[in-house]
Design brief:
By secondary structure, the protein is α/β, with parallel strands linked by helices. It folds into two domains: 248 residues, TIM Barrel, CATH 3.20.20; 58 residues, no CATH class. The protein has 13 helices and 13 strands. Strands 1-2-3-4-5-6-8 form a seven-stranded parallel sheet. Helix 4 links the parallel strand 2 and strand 3. Bound molecules: iron/sulfur cluster (SF4). The site of iron/sulfur cluster has 10 residues, from loops.
């Protein structure tokens, strides 16, 4: 399956249930789920009632905390509501074991969104994630043949570097992970990271730095037949006042996609880009229209071609040339 086909796949309709910080045994340095999402912990009876009446959804997603850090009885209580609808849960690598896997399997969990964030031990320690890269690999080996695994990665964490971000991607691809969400670290108010930032002990990435590194990560992943399904945070309008610093932009994902196109053009000296209209923002957005290439709009759904070569082939060529 190539890039264009993958982009045309229908996305599942997910009914999200936010459980802010529920099941988290420690607090990561950058995290305050309530201010990041604007959600408060719902009453469990209310959750059950709202789920009972659901129609026309493909999955129920439990987000915003550490689902498998909950007591097994509570996990099963939440999963047993509407057993006919597949579930997706978000969790951390250090609370995955055989017993947990057995519960998730029993209750129709299809997808595990795994907050990896980095494979580098120093980054994980300084971000107070409280697990190691080895724990990540152990968790993935337990999950990967039984569930769809979506790995979450972050850039710009304390002690992080471009080389560490790319190495995290490389290791995860080698373990067989193919779906990713990636976002740069944003400094939210009322977090430990905000204190470090105010003391001058943490320097956030600039927007340009974040866009560049995420573009390289996208190329590495999608050049190896993986897919990045989300780039950057969605922060509700009401919560923007809690962003203290960091590379936030409401169209961050499109900025990264545009940068990917520009990097390929510059690396290979591309002279002509043929593209279908739905890719206009990727091809011509964020300054790309100033590139000295010819732009040619083609019939819908055809995708992107650079000097006649399909975009997916260019991603593959570029990914093979990334050095770090
Ligand atoms: S595990 Fe996730 S939800 Fe829990 S404190 Fe860390 S970042 Fe926040």
């Amino acid at each position: 399956m190539d890039f264009q086909q993958k982009d045309l796949e229908r996305r599942p309709k997910i009914y999200p249930v936010f459980l802010p910080n529920l099941g988290c045994r420690t607090r990561c340095i950058y995290c305050n789920q309530s201010i990041m999402t604007g959600e408060t912990l719902p009453d469990l009876k209310e959750i059950a009632q709202s789920l009972q009446n659901l129609t026309d959804v493909d999955e129920i997603g439990y987000y915003g905390g550490t689902f498998t850090g909950l007591k097994p009885e509570l996990m099963e209580k939440l999963l047993s509501v509407r057993p006919d609808i597949p579930k997706r849960i978000s969790t951390r690598p250090d609370v995955i074991d055989e017993h947990v896997v057995e519960i998730l399997k029993r209750w129709n969990v299809k997808t595990v969104e795994l907050g990896v964030e980095s494979i580098d031990d120093e980054v994980l320690k300084n971000s107070k994630r409280n697990y190691t890269g080895a724990d990540v690999l152990r968790a993935i080996s337990l999950l990967k043949d039984r569930f769809e695994v979506v790995a979450h990665l972050m850039t710009g964490l304390p002690s992080d570097t471009r080389a560490k971000d790319l190495e995290s991607v490389r290791i995860l691809i080698n373990t067989g992970v193919s779906l990713f969400r990636i976002h740069p670290t944003i400094v939210f108010k009322d977090t430990e990271l905000e204190v470090l930032f105010k003391q001058g002990l943490y320097k956030p990435q600039t927007l340009d730095e974040a866009v560049n590194i995420l573009a390289e990560m996208v190329i590495l992943i999608e050049g190896h037949n993986g897919k990045v399904i989300r780039l950057g945070y969605h922060i509700p309008q009401s919560q923007l006042k809690y962003v203290a610093a960091g590379p936030y932009h409401p169209s961050f994902g499109d900025m990264v996609r545009s940068r990917v196109v520009r990097m390929i053009v510059e690396r290979f000296g591309v002279k002509e880009i043929a593209y279908s209209r739905r890719f206009t923002s990727w091809v011509k957005g964020y300054g790309n229209d100033k590139m000295s290439v010819s732009f040619l709009e083609i019939s819908d759904e055809d995708g992107i071609f650079l000097d006649g070569t399909p975009f997916s082939d260019m991603l593959r060529r570029y990914s093979e040339s990334i050095k770090y």
